[in-house]
Amino acid sequence: MECIKKIAMQIIDELMDAQKYIDEAKKVREDYPALADLYKELSAEELGHAERLHEQGSQMIGDDHDAKIIWDWETERMEKWEKSIKVLHEMSR
After folding, report:
1. pLDDT per residue over 54-84, tens digit each?
2. What is the SS3 string spanning 44-63?
3. Residue 86: is it exposed, middle or buried by C-beta count within 10 angstroms (0-12/13-18/19+)?
4. Interior angle at CA 57, CA 55 and CA 59, nearest 5
5. How far apart are the first and last CA of the chain?
6. What is the DSSP string of the chain?
7. Burial of 83 per CB tally in 10 Å (0-12, 13-18, 19+)
8. CA pair distance 34, 79, nearest whole angstrom
């Protein structure tokens, strides 16, 4: 269970970084479009890290009912955040 908690925290860290990079892309888009594109790429990479960690965590839980309840709750929160970051990606085209 401790490992699952650690993975959940790592996913949150990746989402925070993705959010940070896409926010920076938005700020500099007009004056520095190449830098904005780089920030957007970095944000996408962080989202990829979060997705890979999520997949691994889901596999590790297996049939542990209690862990699955917690994981599903955490996943719902993280997915909402991830979707909001992806919306910002779409808006920055």
Report:
1. 999 989 888 888 888 888 888 888 888 899 9
2. HHHHHHHHHHHHHHHHHHCC
3. middle
4. 70
5. 40
6. -HHHHHHHHHHHHHHHHHHHHHHHHHHHTTT-HHHHHHHHHHHHHHHHHHHHHHHHHHHHHTT-HHHHHHHHHHHHHHHHHHHHHHHHHHHT-
7. exposed
8. 29
Cβ atoms 22, 89 nearer than 8 A: yes
What type of residue sits at position 37?
Answer: D
| pLDDT tens per residue across span 16-57 | 999 999 999 999 999 999 999 999 999 999 999 999 999 999
